Amino acid sequence: MATSAVRTLVVDDYEPWCRFVCSTLERYPQLHVLDVVSDGPEAVQKGKELQPDLILLDIGLPTLSGIEVARRIRKVSPNSRILFLSENRSLDIVEAALRTGAGGYVVKSDAASELLLAVEAVLRGERFVSASMTGHDSSEPVNDHTAGITHRHEVAFYADDSSMVDGYARFIESALKSKNTVIGVINGSHRADLLLRLERDGVDVPAAIEQRRYILLDVADALSKLTVNDMPDAFLCAKVVGDLINGAAEGVNGEHARVVICGEIAPSLLSKGNAEGAIKLEHLWDEITRSYGVRTLCGYLQSAFRSKEDDPIFEEICAEHSAVL
Asked: CA-based, 20 to 30 A from 43: which of 67, 154, 224, 292?
């Protein structure tokens, strides 16, 4: 650790997390927290005013993303070293964050054991990436896209139905362009709007369905095959989901192509007031798809939760996913 005071700016919009970071830094007197800010533009302004030695920066900030904040701070405070702290485990996001010139990327759930190690490495001018992201030594660069062909279980929270349809459309379009096979388990209320959006964007949906590159399933039908007395059954989930993935994999054609899934099975349970069932299904889904190397995007409406700050259901849903978008 540096012998002189390291002037540090903490940027995150979640107050309990900021308290954890500050209390961790306090274990080393050399690390002096100048300020804690929660908004992207404010972070850029503080970076310009304070010229901190170190900036601990979240990705998901209000108004302006952490990645864009980093780009702007590099211009107004070029000597500041930047360390990203985020729960986002997308390799694309990690690479985009490091391309800003940041010195490191720590997954928040690993911060208890890695934060101070990362700070020390970044202050020495070394690169640090959480070991859980690289699968190897934490200083190893994350730049091999073949490493992305692994299990990913992501969750996204949408403001309304329209933004949810947009999110699914972007996910499906990107997957099809990459020659992946897409399984969509979509509510009827969203299915028609999603079809219109995909066709508007130039996706030949009938052809993709005929070629088994886009497999569309009904949520209610899927739930009937996965649950007993409205609760997910471990045996049924393993059998049905496994068969579904194996069947879809037959249509995969490409060196790095794979099966990807998006949908609303667990979110539908939550919308019916069955939070326990939703959390259990997310847990089972994570265990099952992990062995197949499948990428999944689960979409929830924000209105399903009281508030993200104090809703234990929200926290449990997030905990069952490898990335929160």
From this structure: 154
